[in-house]
Amino acid sequence: VLIAGTLIGGVLIIIAGFFLAGRTLVPIRIAWEKQQQFVADASHELRTPLAVIQSQAELLFRHPYATIEQESEKISAVLKETRRMNKLVADLLTLARSDSNQLEIERKPLLLDRLLTEICWQFAQMAEIKGVALTTDLHPGIQLEADEARLRQLLVILLDNALKYTAEQGKVHVICRRTSHGVEIVVEDTGAGIPAEDLPFVFDRFYRGDKVRTSSDGGTGLGLSIAKWIVEAHQGTIRAESKIGKGTTFTVQLPGKK
Ligand code: ADP
């Protein structure tokens, strides 16, 4: 009986060990697979601008006596891809640092309406050139404890997208108001919209809509994942609502004093 009891006990301990190890190893495996995917996607995204830079530089090298127009065409292609790579590398660094908790959020009191007025002002010229009406409804005196640089980065991502995906004669409207739990920032546009089946993925790393994937607008598909990280680092939430052909609304909710 003693031997049988010891054997059964041993078997039970081994089974429990495997069960517990399985439960703890699964999240590690998922995190590892996610990391692998991130590295693979990043390498893939970096290869495209690099290939363009290499081919244009080789052409310039092989045909040094081409016309000035042909030369400047190639040089501007190299510059455009270099800028794209710079942005991509900066975005990748932000995400890699946020993954390893190396990015600190430095909270300081700031006036949200003032920050939004300043950023909208910076985008006013871009909106005018595009023929898009940029309007605001900013409740005055909303104070918030937040990292100003990161909040600026978040708002720039949302406004840049709203203008990028809204055609001439469209509208972009920015709202900031108090809510019962804190503050709410809304960026709504009357642009292209996002298909319902794509909406759950817009905050995923490297996700880009079908139509824009092949375009040369310099997007990286990392903007909204950085936006999500910034909002969550401030214990807030971000959501997207959209109707194809009608427009998109991003709503950010941040906790704050009443
Ligand atoms: P990027 O803009 O560089 O492609 P983002 O992460 O900022 O990457 O956005 C991911 C995708 O979400 C975009 O490629 C686009 O398809 C879609 N998207 C984001 N914002 C908007 C918007 N305001 N209107 C329509 N589509 C949008």
Written account of the structure:
It contains 6 helices and 7 strands; from the N terminus they run ααβαββαββααββ. With 258 residues, it is of the alpha+beta class. A 5-stranded mixed beta sheet has the order 2-4-5-7-6, covered by helices on one side. A two-stranded antiparallel ribbon has the order 1-3. Helix 1 (2-62) runs antiparallel to helix 2. The protein is extended and about 95 Å long. The relative contact order is 0.11. The model has no long low-confidence stretch (mean pLDDT 90). Adenosine-5'-diphosphate (ADP) binds at residues 157, 161-162, 165, 189, 191-194, 202, 207-209, 212, 219-224, 248. The chain crosses the membrane at residues 1-21. Its EC number is 2.7.13.3.
Short description:
It comes from Tumebacillus lipolyticus. 56% of the residues lie in helices and 18% in strands.
Strand order of the largest sheet: 2-4-5-7-6
Overall residue-averaged pLDDT value: 90
SSE string: HHEHEEHEEHHEE
| Residue runs with pLDDT of under 50 for 5 or more positions | none
Radius of gyration (Å)? 24 Å
Helical content class: 55-70%
Number of strands: 7
The helix-and-strand class reads: alpha+beta
- What's the total helix number? 6
Taking the alpha carbons of the first and last residues, their distance comes to 68 Å
Bound molecule types: adenosine-5'-diphosphate
